[in-house]
Structures are given as structure tokens and as C-alpha cells.
Amino acid sequence: MQKRVLITGAAGFLGSHLCDRFIKEGFQVVGMDNLITGDLKNIEHLFKLEQFEFYHHDVSKFIHVPGNLDYILHFASPASPIDYLKIPIQTLKVGALGTHNCLGLAKAKGARILVASTSEVYGDPLVHPQTEEYWGNVNPVGPRGVYDEAKRFMESITMAYHTYHQVETRIIRIFNTYGPRMRLNDGRALPAFIGQALRGEDLTVFGDGSQTRSFCYVDDLIEGIYRLLMSDYANPVNIGNPDEITLKEFAEEIIKLTGTSQKIVYRPLPADDPRQRKPDISKAKEILGWSPRVNRSEGVKITYEYFKSLPHEELFKQPKEFKIVNK
């Protein structure tokens, strides 16, 4: 029997790459997305395949998938600050109600479930680099709290289903990831810098640019997710690239790569923006035998070529507006 996997958030950046990977591994893939931030363009190449099916559905509502399921990967959620600040309640609901529904489905089907948590559970960290044992420094009522606390609740309810219902669960904490299929206008540093360079605009750095990020190429992340799903480890695992860089240095790298003559301009730092972000990946190395392989210069080059290949109008697309009002 061919193994069957449900991937929520299938039309998003990471979800679409996961669909590709599981198709390649010989799985029957069920994609699910309400398309509030996802885009069917990311998975349209899969629609002709017999081993792929798609449900246009919001996981915050009851989920019904007929037939057997062996695995569930819960990746439905806005992940861009621009998005989750505009749709804060939907962000909380997909992390809480959506996770509850996915866990209920996993229990009913006897499926193993992996949930996509984030380095944001560490908030603006007081420990560096961040280990899985660190409990975080999160402002629950700040503007970013809707995303951070949704993911922290996700981890809590997942562990509760594991201990109380014996559901097979896996928790990944994803650090900054980049690669093809990111949205140019999603507000994150890498697409923002490349988009500005391609449009001939100055590159915007928030704060003084001394805050750090650690960027992981998408193929490395997908490999880490796959290995964690197939492992027998139930506690959270950091997956990310520990190669840390300041945002000012990163903007300078993008200027050099793109050959733009634009300069860096500085804007005020948003509230609760993390000053440091670097994963301790000792657990991933030890338990999964995983570490990133693609270095930043190689990965950024591939991503830049992808953005350059997009239709010209994509460069000038405004961030998404949402019609849903606090449902």
C-alpha cells in the first residue's frame, strides 16, 4: 500500500516544497489550503499527477479526509509579519483550532503528525544561541504575540495529545528559511532586499542593522523535516542554519550580488523585533544526523535567479490585503 500524507498549508512556500518532496518519495499526497496566504501557482505542476489531490479548506474548521492517512504535516499558518499583523485572529485560530483539528484527525486515523513550530517561540531571546531547553522571552500582548503564542500553544496541545492520547507527534522549530516560491512582498528580510534591488530602490534596514539572523536554504530545511518525521523523537527540535549574520551585512551582500547601485537606508525597529536569532542544532545533528549543506552565497544566488525570472508585474505587487474582518 502506498503511504498517504496530508500536508496543510500546501500552497505556501514550505508546504509546496513538502508536497514535491513527498511525491518524490513515492507518497500519495493530500494537499490542503484555504489560500488566504498560499498560492495555487506553487503547486499547479502537481495537479496532473494521480498521486496528488487538493482540498480547498480552512483547517480552523472541522477537517474530513476520507480514506487512510499515515502522516500529517501541519504547516498552515501565516508566517510573514506583514500577514499576521493584518490577520491576527486567523493566525491565532490556525495555531490553536487548526492544530486541535489536525491532532484530532491524527488520533482518528492513527497517523503520525509533525507540527511546524518556529524560532519565534523564543521571542527576543536572552540566551544565545537558542537551545530547545530555552523557554523564551515573549511578549504575549505585543503585536507579534499573536504568532509567537499561537505556536507556543501549538506545541503545548501537541505534547498533550502525545502524553494523554498516545498520538505519535513530532515538533519542529523552524528558523529563518529562504528559497524559491517565497513571496517578494511578504516583508521578510531576504525577499524584501532582493525586491528592492530589482526595482532599483534603496534597501531598507530596520534599527541599526546590528540584529542578527541565520538563514537556512529551503532544501536543507525540507530534508530536516523529513528526517524528523521519520525519527522516533517527540520533543521539539531546532532546524536551521547556525551561520549568523547581521542584517546590515546581509543587505551589503545583496547589493554586491545584484550589482545594484542603491544604498542602505535605516528605519525605526518594529516592536519586539528579535535582536538575535541563531539555532543550536546539536540535537538535529545527534538525533537526525542532519546539518545544513547549502551555504548562504550558493542559496541566495539560486533564490535571486528565481526572483529575476518572475514576470515583471510580480516585482510591483503590493502586500496582500485580506477581506476577512476578525471572524
In short:
This protein has 327 residues and is of the alpha/beta class. It has helices at 13-24, 81-86, 88-109, 145-165, 189-199, 218-230, 247-258, 282-288, 296-308; strands spanning 4-8, 28-33, 52-56, 71-74, 112-118, 169-174, 177-178, 203-206, 212-214, 216-217, 237-239, 244-246, 264-267.
Write the layout of secondary structure elements.
Blueprint: E1 4-8, H1 13-24, E2 28-33, E3 52-56, E4 71-74, H2 81-86, H3 88-109, E5 112-118, H4 145-165, E6 169-174, E7 177-178, H5 189-199, E8 203-206, E9 212-214, E10 216-217, H6 218-230, E11 237-239, E12 244-246, H7 247-258, E13 264-267, H8 282-288, H9 296-308
Parallel strand pairs: 1-2, 1-4, 2-3, 4-5, 5-6, 6-11, 7-10, 8-13
Antiparallel strand pairs: 9-12
Helix pairs in contact: 3-4, 5-7, 5-9
Structural class: alpha/beta
With helices defined by DSSP (H or I, 4 residues minimum), what is the helix count? 9
Task: Classify the beta-strand content into a percent band.
Answer: 15-25%
Q: How many DSSP E strands?
A: 13
Radius of gyration, Cα only, in angstroms? Answer: 19 Å
* Alpha carbon gap, first and last residue: 41 Å
The coarse silhouette is globular
The whole-number mean of residue pLDDT values reads: 93
Description:
This protein is α/β, with parallel strands linked by helices and 327 residues long. 36% of the residues lie in helices and 17% in strands. It is built from 9 helices and 13 strands. The strands form 4 sheets. The protein has a 7-stranded parallel beta sheet with strand order 3-2-1-4-5-6-11, sandwiched between helices. A two-stranded parallel ribbon has the order 7-10. It has a two-stranded parallel sheet with strand order 8-13. The longest helix is centred in the first third of the chain and has 22 residues, at 88-109. It starts with a strand and ends in a 19-residue tail after the last helix.
